Amino acid sequence: MEKLVVLKDGVLIREVPMETTSISIGRDPEACISLDDPSVSRLHAQITKIYTDYYVEDLESTNGTQLNGRAVKKHILREGDRLSIGSYKLRYDNDEADSEEDDIDKTVLIRPEAPARSPAVPERPQRKRPMVMPKTALLRFFRGPLKGQQDQITRSLYTIGKPGAAVAVIARRPQGFYLLHIGGPSLPKINDKEIEGSAGVQLHHGDVVEVGEYLTEIIFEELSPVSEHNLILSPPRLSRDALFDLILLQSFQTVERIKSLFWREIVRINLS
Questions:
Q1: Burial level of 246, CB count in 10 A (0-12/13-18/19+)?
Q2: Rounded to an integer, what is the distance from CA 72 to the centroid of its chain?
Q3: C-beta of residue 50 within 8 angstroms of C-beta of residue 27
Q4: Disulfide: which of 5, 86, 117, 122 matches 39 by Cβ 3.0-4.6 Å?
């Protein structure tokens, strides 16, 4: 079972089972974990469960949040991680931690010896395995407070939106990048279609993401040849409003691509 062990000056204060998807930490008595320390902000930090992982996020506190002695704004939690908030230490324990990653690291793959080939049969050259998953991604904002700007996703969790309104995150997983709905009255959209499910929806190169007043395009900086080929054959389908937003921002698109998207949209509307 996952839990947070709260310590002060090395003395155990309490253990908090992590049974909810959101755990607030701060000086406020109404916080899930209330810390009686004047150096702790009223709403200091928050721990959020996304899919199967927990993430800690500093809520712009006065004195900051440290993870294993390093100041962080947002970071995934791993077994044994220690959070320093004021004079308190919070240790993340997971008694049922999956040891699959360790098993993978310790496993040695023994390949059977291939039978000797006849000299008359020429060996085929081995094909280089194409890269499958992107390592980094770039966001280009076409609408909202960040209109005209771009930002690179270099951390495990990237937030889009405003607290109290529509909020979503882009989570970087081993399988790729996923869009998840965090809060707000409206669901995020990918290519003008609302996402479904709590596990998140995988993003692909060129997808247009809409979260409240934000409209952005995700660009993968490293793609396999197959993904690039699929991108050419199947560009994202956009609504007319989203398409016009893209046309207004010609600094981010080449003229040829804008024309291609425009005529593809016209054909789709006429056929629908």
A1: buried
A2: 16
A3: no
A4: 86
Q: Backbone dihedral region of 269: left (phi > 0), alpha (psi from -120 to 50 degrees) or beta?
A: alpha
- Give CA–CA dist 108/86, Å, rounded: 44
Give the predicted TM-score (pTM) of the model. 0.41
What pLDDT score does 30 carry?
92
Phi, psi of 224 (to 5 degrees): -75, 155
Give the number of other Cβ atoms within 10 Å of residue 183's Cβ: 13
pLDDT of 164-221, one tens digit each? Answer: 788 888 888 888 889 988 877 888 899 888 887 667 888 988 899 999 899 999 988 7
The vertex-161 CA angle with 157 and 166, nearest 5°, equals 115
What does the pLDDT average to over 54-71?
92
Look-up of token digits 């902000």: 41
Of the candidates 67, 54, 65, 56, the one whose C-alpha atom is nearest the C-alpha of residue 97 is: 54
The amino acid at 249: L
Helix (H, G, I), strand (E, B) or coil at 154: coil
20, 40, 138, 210, 220 from 247: Cα distances, Å: 43, 47, 19, 16, 21
